[in-house]
């Protein structure tokens, strides 16, 4: 299962180079802001021997429960699972109903008898369930395939974790940034998979040793798939600019924020490549927004409820890749249908003066937002570090709020980062593909 593989990769010693495990401390600022880089050791072989072998899924017997309209599978381990008739017919794996080369269903929903019964259910070789339907159509289901799709609460949660890698490791000022070799990520599938697993779980990973040249992020984007094109282009230059069309393009302090809530669908992942660093100032600050949200929910449930319900307007207007006039409505804290944290949408610079809520709810909204911001700015929740040329920081833009301390603006460019975005759809796709490739190779 994905969760098991990811956990072992994150905990195990995997070597693609021989850098020893160590913690580096930046010498440039106070102890609270010390940068602790956890170095990951990478191995030339996939850790198949350290992963639990998949047990052979055996079935003891099967039966049809006509009243409940279920097929019940009794497993050799003593457990049992039930599968609705209609779901089994809808998911018939025969060539007539399923295109295996595309892993896509061919059976149209309009041809599905949603009230179907079954004519016969048998077990073949203790591995496969064979079903004959009333119209004599036959379906066969592998035991392992069925087991993974069990409808029990535990099995469904396990499958969702495998598909979406939803486990999070929360942190505050005690963060130790997982740090990996940029070249290894580009050239070693194990390291690339480990990187993406850590990015999903921790929310932030630092890559070291990238060539110090503009445009290098294109190579990293291609390693995953493709980058997100926005109104700032495929990549964009974070540096002090005259007549800046974004507050990031100044030398001033940037308060903690997520990028691009003015888009209806903000980018999921952000890359920042350090090309030049200011001698004084310019330190980066990050906060685990989900960690802070969990604290807010416990300590100030009223504020949490307001920020998860009120829709706030965001705007962004200017000219860059092309001219743009963006407008969106977002909840500051976005939850999924199950009430789990999905995304944080907060950028004070692009929060619109238009506020589409009744006047008597304005004061409670501001009080709630201030409580949230005050909580994320507490020293125990904020981690500071200073990027150096050749560093690429990769982070979850839906979860991590990031900011920057001010730096001294000079006649020439004193600080230069290049940035780019990707969508989580693309990143998770690469994770699944790498996982499958590593399993097949071993």
UniProtKB/TrEMBL annotation:
Gene3D superfamilies, sorted: 3.30.2020.30, Clavaminate synthase-like
Pathway membership: Amine and polyamine biosynthesis; carnitine biosynthesis
Protein function: Catalyzes the formation of L-carnitine from gamma-butyrobetaine.
EC number: 1.14.11.1
Pfam families the UniProt entry points to: GBBH-like_N, TauD
Record key words, sorted: Carnitine biosynthesis, Dioxygenase, Iron, Metal-binding, Oxidoreductase
InterPro entries named among the record's database cross-references: AlphaKG_dependent_hydroxylases, GBBH-like, GBBH-like_N, GBBH-like_N_sf, TauD-like_sf, TauD/TfdA-like
Entry GO CC: mitochondrion
Domain of life: Eukaryota
Protein name: gamma-butyrobetaine dioxygenase
All residue ranges annotated as the Gamma-butyrobetaine hydroxylase-like N-terminal domain in the record: 66-146
Annotated ranges, domain TauD/TfdA-like: 173-421
């Amino acid at each position: 299962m994905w969760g098991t593989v990811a956990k072992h990769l994150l905990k195990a010693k995997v070597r693609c180079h021989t850098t020893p495990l160590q913690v580096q401390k930046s010498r440039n600022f106070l102890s609270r802001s010390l940068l602790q880089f956890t170095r990951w050791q990478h191995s030339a072989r996939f850790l198949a021997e350290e992963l639990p072998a998949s047990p052979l899924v055996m079935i003891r017997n099967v039966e049809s429960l006509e009243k409940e309209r279920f097929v019940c599978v009794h497993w050799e381990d003593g457990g049992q699972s039930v599968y609705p008739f209609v779901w089994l017919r809808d998911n018939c794996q025969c060539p007539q109903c399923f295109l295996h080369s595309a892993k896509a269903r061919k059976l149209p929903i309009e041809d599905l008898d949603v009230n179907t019964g079954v004519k016969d259910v048998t077990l073949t070789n203790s591995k496969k369930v064979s079903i004959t339907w009333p119209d004599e159509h036959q379906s066969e289901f592998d035991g392992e395939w069925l087991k993974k799709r069990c409808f029990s609460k535990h099995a469904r949660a396990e499958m969702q974790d495998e598909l979406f890698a939803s486990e999070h490791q929360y942190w505050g000022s005690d963060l130790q940034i997982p740090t990996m070799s940029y070249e290894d990520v580009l050239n070693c599938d194990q390291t690339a998979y480990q990187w993406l697993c850590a990015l999903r779980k921790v929310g932030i990973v630092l890559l070291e040793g990238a060539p110090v040249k503009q445009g290098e992020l294109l190579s990293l984007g291609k390693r995953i798939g493709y980058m997100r094109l926005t109104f700032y282009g495929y990549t964009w230059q974070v540096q002090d600019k005259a007549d800046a069309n974004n507050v990031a393009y100044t030398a001033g302090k940037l308060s903690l924020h997520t990028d691009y809530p003015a888009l209806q669908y903000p980018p999921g992942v952000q890359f920042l490549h350090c090309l030049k660093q200011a001698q004084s100032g310019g330190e980066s600050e990050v906060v685990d927004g989900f960690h802070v949200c969990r604290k807010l929910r416990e300590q100030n449930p009223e504020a949490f409820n307001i920020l998860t319900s009120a829709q706030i307007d965001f705007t962004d207007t200017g000219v860059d890749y092309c001219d743009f006039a963006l407008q969106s409505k977002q909840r500051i804290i976005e939850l999924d249908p199950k009430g789990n944290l999905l995304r944080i949408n907060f950028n004070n610079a692009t929060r619109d003066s238009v506020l589409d809520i009744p006047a008597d709810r304005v004061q409670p909204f501001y009080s709630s937002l201030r409580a949230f911001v005050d909580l994320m700015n507490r020293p125990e929740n904020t981690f500071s570090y200073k990027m150096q040329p050749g560093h690429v920081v990769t982070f979850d833009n839906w979860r991590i709020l990031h900011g920057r301390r001010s730096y001294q603006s000079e006649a020439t460019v004193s600080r230069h980062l290049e940035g780019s975005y990707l969508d989580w759809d693309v990143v998770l796709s690469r994770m699944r593909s790498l996982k499958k490739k590593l399993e097949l190779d071993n």
